[in-house]
Design a protein that fits this description.
Distance between the termini: 96 Å
CATH topology of the largest domain: Nucleotidyltransferase, domain 5
Largest sheet: 5 strands, mixed
CATH class of the largest domain: Alpha Beta
Number of strands: 7
CATH architecture of the largest domain: 2-Layer Sandwich
Structural class: alpha/beta
Strand order of the largest sheet: 3-2-1-4-5
């Protein structure tokens, strides 16, 4: 302690007053930084400005610097000059168009990748926007280098959804642990369940009969998506190709995600119906599934259908609200009556 006092007195003697004041100011400022730090120094913009200013008026500032390196202070000064120059050279010419118009241009281009600049400009004019062709071209995103892939997968699938049907099987256990097998066919267009079949002894001929009942009056389906279950035998595949004149589309091995709609509806049947009751026998399961499928197709709303049901459900805005129980009150259907 004594040696520190002696050293401090020597500094006061051999240094001029101005240097001592500036050094004390620098040390005080670093102590403030240290106090508000927990593990790492929290340097704020004021601290950066302070050290940049101090480095310009005091030639010995590097000796008193402890919280960072001198190169860091120099980089702060360079960043400050960049901000200053950016402010000085800010754009003063013709102002940009409204951001809402820019978003509308890009949204229209994204929704319609085949449209030209003139087509997009014409659509904007009909929406009340005033923009020339050069302005529209300026704010359009640059096209990707592969011109052949201009149609998005979502558009492609939407165009083919009315012609695709997914089929699958799942197992339900009864109260006495007997296995019952359920056949499900769902349309990709409106997520409508086309057919549900139940049996305790599945075989190829029974599966073919389910195809007959599913596509008896169907003239729009072209593709049948299925997995590689053994029940889809050679006779089953030939019936799809030769008798029904449909394209058999099996998924890859252990790739259930390639038949997503069928897998999703099976999950819905389990979560919203079968997991909440005990099945007694085959006739009980058939009755339960028939009631739930009727509710699923005509009343249950779907996010993928903009909160509509597979069979279009009209909006009712007037009248008293009444409810109808489904499956003993497991679900309810709400409607309005005069």
């Amino acid at each position: 302690m004594l040696f520190r006092l002696i050293g401090y007195l020597l500094i006061l003697i051999f240094k001029d007053k101005q240097n001592v004041i500036l050094e004390n100011l620098a040390l005080r400022q670093q102590l403030i930084v240290q106090k508000r730090s927990i593990k790492r120094h929290k340097i704020r913009n004021f601290d950066r400005i302070f050290w940049v200013w101090l480095s310009k008026i005091w030639k010995n500032w590097k000796k008193a610097l402890l919280v960072s390196k001198p190169a860091t202070v120099i980089s702060w000064h360079k960043k400050g000059f960049k901000l200053y120059w950016k402010f000085k050279s800010r754009r003063v010419g013709r102002p940009n168009i409204d951001w809402e118009l820019i978003k509308q241009i890009r949204k229209t281009q994204k929704d319609n990748p085949l449209w030209s600049v003139q087509r997009i400009q014409g659509e904007l004019i009909k929406l009340g926007y005033s923009a020339c062709v050069n302005t529209v071209a300026k704010y359009m995103k640059k096209p990707k280098p592969s011109p052949g892939k201009r149609q998005r997968w979502r558009t492609f699938l939407k165009n083919h959804a009315p012609h695709i049907v997914g089929i699958d099987f799942f197992v339900v256990r009864t109260a006495f642990f007997k296995a019952l097998y359920v056949f499900v066919a769902i349309s990709h267009d409106r997520r409508k369940i086309l057919h549900v079949g139940v049996t305790s002894k599945p075989h190829s001929q029974w599966a073919i009969q389910q195809l007959r009942e599913t596509f008896a009056f169907d003239d729009t389906t072209k593709y049948v998506v299925r997995d590689n279950d053994k029940i889809f035998s050679y006779d089953f595949q030939q019936y799809i190709k030769n008798t029904l004149q449909l394209q058999d589309t099996p998924t890859a091995y252990r790739s259930s995600w390639q038949n997503p709609h069928a897998e999703r509806v099976i999950g819905t049947l389990r979560r919203e119906c079968l997991d909440n009751m005990i099945i007694l026998n085959e006739s009980h399961l058939r009755k339960v599934l028939d009631e739930f499928v009727e509710y699923y197709n005509t009343s249950r709303t779907h996010m993928s259908l903009n909160k509509d049901s597979p069979v279009h459900r009209p909006v009712q805005a007037k009248g008293r609200i009444v409810k109808k129980p489904v499956l003993g009150g497991l679900h309810h259907i709400y409607s309005r009556v005069a």
